[in-house]
Structure formats: structure tokens, C-alpha cells
Specification:
By secondary structure, this protein is α/β, with parallel strands linked by helices. The strands form two sheets. Strands 3-2-1-4-6-7-9 form a seven-stranded parallel sheet, with helices on both faces. Strands 5-8 form a two-stranded parallel sheet. It is 47% helix and 15% strand. Helix 1 (15-26) packs across helix 8 and helix 3 runs parallel beside helix 5 (105-121). It is globular and about 60 Å long. The protein has one domain (6-197, 214-241): Rossmann fold (3-Layer(aba) Sandwich). It has helices at residues 15-26, 40-44, 56-70, 93-103, 105-121, 144-162, 196-211, 217-228, 243-250, 253-263; strands at 6-9, 30-35, 48-50, 75-78, 84-85, 124-129, 167-174, 186-187, 235-238.
């Protein structure tokens, strides 16, 4: 009988992470979630490990705890992240750096921690959760889109470098989903009045997209398919917005930009 795969998922307090933990557990995987502040119940049941992806010490401690429990890790799902709300000019350099520390370097820290184990096992799988915003950015989301673009390109390079060790790498690129990610986001540290009206219209349009967004279970199901696949692809766009990727390729750049500006209500 095949041994249960050990799956570690970051950022499982809500949204994609929580749905993925629930789904993979039902499918029989040995699943561990993570949280900066896990409940005592979760810690007691050994389902959630304490983890702050912005801290190298915390990452090392988390992986060490996991290895003591399982002595292996088969799949890492890098899901931890947050959204910043505001114009780029309203974002301080500290805002930008913190966004990258969590969304991008957090994933890098986790990968660096598990790769020696996976190379020793001669097998493993890494699934990074990016966003379609990394390809078609939304305005007034601060440095969120650049962090996700970095995750996408990082995943492409990583896939090439570790394939020879029988380590598979894929990146999931969700569109708009009905989660609390936006509402749990952080505002930029500055406010510039010149952006006020345009930002308000764009944020209103964004909230409508999120409200009409798909159920996050679709992302969890995609992750489950990737794990089960013998030859997983690199890119997995998810959601109705994935059709915009083709539109972006075939539509003249000016027309596509105008369509985006109209969608985000950037022009009066």
C-alpha cells in the first residue's frame, strides 16, 4: 500500500489555504497547515504548525517540527500572502519591502528549507500560489501584482533547475475569488488626495469582481489535480478571468489597455 503523501501548506487560516487543507485531508493525504498564531486545538491535534514566512528562524523551526513528526515532505504549497491597497506612489519603500518579504521571499524561504530534504528523497513537489494579477495587474493594489509576477518567474526558473532531482514545480494563478484576501489587506502608509476619486472607482469595481468571484474550492481542486498528476504543467490559471490571457495575446495592446481602463473605471 502506497504511503500517504505528506503535504505542507502555508497560510491556511482562511481562503485557498483552508479549503486546500480540508480537501486534501478528505482525499487521504497527511496534511499540515500553518499559521502565525495557530489555535491550541490545532496545535494539540498536530494539524497546524506555527509559521511566520517572513522569519527564517520560524521557517527552519516549522520544517524541523514537521520532520520530527513525519520524517519526510512530499509536497509544499506556498500560499501565504496578503494584498496591499493603494497607489504605487502611496506605497512607502517599507510597504513594498514588507509585501515582497511575505508574498515572494516567504515562498523562497520555504523552498530553500525543503529542497535539501526533497533532493535527499530524490522526489518532491512544490506548488506556488501566484495570481493572474501577476500577468494582468489591477490598479491600486500597491505592490501585490509585482510580488506575484516575481513568484511566477521564480517558479519557471526553479522548475528548470530542480527537474533533474525528480522535483516537480507548478504555479497556480487564480483570478478573482470570493475570499477575504482583499478585505484582510493592508492600506498603504501614505494617502495622496490626487488619487482619491480614481482609486475609489477602481476599488469599487474590484469589490464587485470579488463579490462575483468563484468559490475558492476551485483552487483547492486544482491543487489536488496537480498533486495527482504524473506530469503536472508549469502554469495553472484558475477562474473565469483566465480567458483574458488569450485576449491579451491576440488583442492590440492599445485596445486591451483601453478595455482595462474602462473595466477599472479609471477615466471619468
Amino acid at each position: 500500500m502506497e504511503e500517504k503523501k505528506v503535504v505542507l501548506i502555508t497560510g491556511t487560516s482562511s481562503g485557498f489555504g483552508r479549503e486546500t487543507v480540508a480537501l486534501l485531508s478528505k482525499k487521504g493525504y497527511h496534511v499540515f497547515g500553518t499559521s502565525r498564531n495557530p489555535s491550541k486545538k490545532d496545535e494539540k491535534e498536530s494539524k497546524t504548525l506555527q509559521l511566520d514566512v517572513t522569519s527564517e528562524l520560524s521557517v527552519v523551526s516549522c520544517i524541523s517540527s514537521l520532520m520530527k513528526k513525519t520524517n519526510r515532505i512530499d509536497v509544499l504549497v506556498n500560499n501565504a500572502g496578503y494584498v496591499s491597497n493603494g497607489a504605487l506612489e502611496e506605497s512607502s519603500l517599507q510597504d513594498a519591502m514588507h509585501q515582497f518579504e511575505t508574498n515572494f521571499f516567504g515562498a523562497v524561504r520555504m523552498v530553500d528549507a525543503v529542497l535539501p530534504i526533497m533532493r535527499n528523497q530524490k522526489a518532491g513537489q512544490i506548488i506556488n500560489i501566484a495570481s493572474l494579477a501577476g500577468i494582468i495587474p489591477a490598479p491600486f493594489q500597491g505592490f501585490y501584482a509585482p510580488t506575484k509576477a516575481a513568484v511566477i518567474s521564480y517558479s519557471e526558473v526553479l522548475r528548470q533547475e530542480v527537474k533533474g532531482f525528480n522535483i516537480k514545480v507548478s504555479v497556480v494563478e487564480p483570478g478573482f475569488f470570493n475570499t477575504h484576501l482583499f478585505y484582510k489587506g493592508k492600506n498603504t502608509s501614505k494617502t495622496i488626495l490626487d488619487y482619491k476619486e480614481t482609486k475609489a472607482r477602481a476599488i469599487a469595481a474590484l469589490k464587485e469582481d470579488i463579490k462575483k468571484g468563484a468559490d475558492p474550492i476551485a483552487v483547492a481542486e486544482t491543487i489536488a489535480r496537480i498533486i495527482k498528476s504524473r506530469n503536472p504543467r508549469l502554469h495553472y490559471p484558475v477562474g473565469k478571468e483566465k480567458g483574458y490571457l488569450l485576449v491579451k495575446k491576440i488583442m492590440p495592446e492599445g485596445m486591451f489597455e483601453s478595455a482595462l481602463r474602462q473595466h477599472w473605471r479609471l477615466d471619468k
